[in-house]
Design goal:
The protein has about 350 residues and is of the alpha/beta class. Helix content is about 35%, strand content about 15%. The protein is built from 14 helices and twelve strands. Helix 1 links the parallel strand 1 and strand 2.
């Protein structure tokens, strides 16, 4: 029997840690959705309350930034699958899941195109000084700003050398979209891509020590691990070309935010485009939200929306439910990360 058409007599239970409206909106037209009871715990609900609601759940689908702790995993005797709603899974206790024999899966690649679009948007916004330009028009300084920028100069994206830190699905999707822009594309990762993949992308590998000082734009595309947490630190930023731009559409934990604030204040980093900050939700006392007025216009923020398009959620929720059906039918889920 196909896993996607699987039925069984006793009803299974899915614990959703996240937003109920989102789960309802993107519910796929699959038979398995009618056979599984859904219990929703909003992000931030305590483990104790979650266990009161759904200690007997068979499956967990968790918002990508919602923790799934060892306490939860160890206390749920019927748990058969933990699934990230998106791509990230760093908030899930993988060690506890391994010990308990519970597979952890994500929706790998499902947001690659969406985040690639956001990455390019932030690159262009920094190059075109969008924040200051918008403010200038609103206060009647349009022509003065235009004349200033004609003298200072505006770089076209096609004239830039772009260095990618990481070369996963999102980075490669961004490279694909930049293929006809004329940019020079380089990347750094621990294991270089194949020759054929480099040729297809029009990108070349460079050691980090060479990539940083050669790039007009450095774009971050690595997951949060012990090795990458805080990797964009004072020495990383100092190694970047003076006047270059930093783009982060990965995770806020990768960037040492005090170091970035200092590099922006000194002028060594000309601008930053940031789709994500740490912590999330962002607090009002965040160092990058409290820079001097002369610096604030050199940062373009977006509220971590790079990967949350409607198309992404339709694809992601279908993957989650298809994996639930596979596990329910005794099959192996796809996109397993632990």
């Amino acid at each position: 029997m196909s896993a996607l058409n699987y039925r069984r007599e006793s009803q299974m239970k899915l614990l959703v840690i996240g937003d109920e409206a989102r789960v309802n909106k993107y519910l796929p037209a699959l038979e398995i959705t009618q056979e599984v009871e859904r219990v929703v715990a909003q992000r931030g609900t305590s483990d104790e309350e979650i266990l009161r609601l759904a200690a007997d759940a068979d499956f967990i689908m968790a918002d990508a930034i919602s923790p799934v702790s060892a306490q939860l995993i160890e206390s749920m005797a019927h748990l058969r699958l933990i699934h990230s709603e998106g791509v990230a899974y760093h908030a899930i206790d993988l060690k506890a899941a391994r010990i308990c024999g519970v597979p952890v899966c994500n929706c790998r690649g499902v947001n690659a195109g969406a985040v690639a679009e956001q990455t390019i948007l932030l690159m262009l916004a920094c190059l075109r000084d969008v924040v200051n330009g918008d403010a200038a028009v609103r206060c009647g300084q349009q022509i003065q700003t235009k004349e200033r920028l004609m003298v200072e100069g505006i770089r076209e994206l096609g004239d830039c050398s772009i260095g990618f830190i990481g070369a996963g699905d999102i980075a490669r999707s961004t490279m694909d979209r930049l293929a006809n822009w004329g940019c020079t594309l380089a990347y750094y990762k621990r294991t270089p891509l194949s020759f054929d993949e480099e040729k297809r992308l029009g990108a070349h590998f460079e050691p980090l020590c060479d990539l940083l000082p050669a790039s007009d734009i450095v774009s971050i595309h690595v997951p949060v691990t012990d090795a990458t947490r805080g990797m964009v630190n004072e020495s990383f930023l100092a190694a970047m070309k003076r006047g270059s731009i930093l783009i982060n559409t990965a995770r806020g934990e990768i960037v040492n935010q005090e170091a970035l604030a200092t590099a922006l204040s000194s002028g060594h980093i000309a601008a930053a485009g940031l789709d994500t900050l740490y912590p999330e939700p962002v607090t009002a006392d965040h160092p990058l939200l409290n820079l001097p007025e002369a610096i604030t216009g050199r940062i373009v923020f977006s509220p971590h929306i790079g990967g949350i398009t409607e198309g992404m959620f339709h694809r992601a929720h279908r993957i989650v439910w298809e994996n639930i059906a596979r596990v329910a039918a005794g099959e192996v889920p796809i996109n397993r990360v632990s």
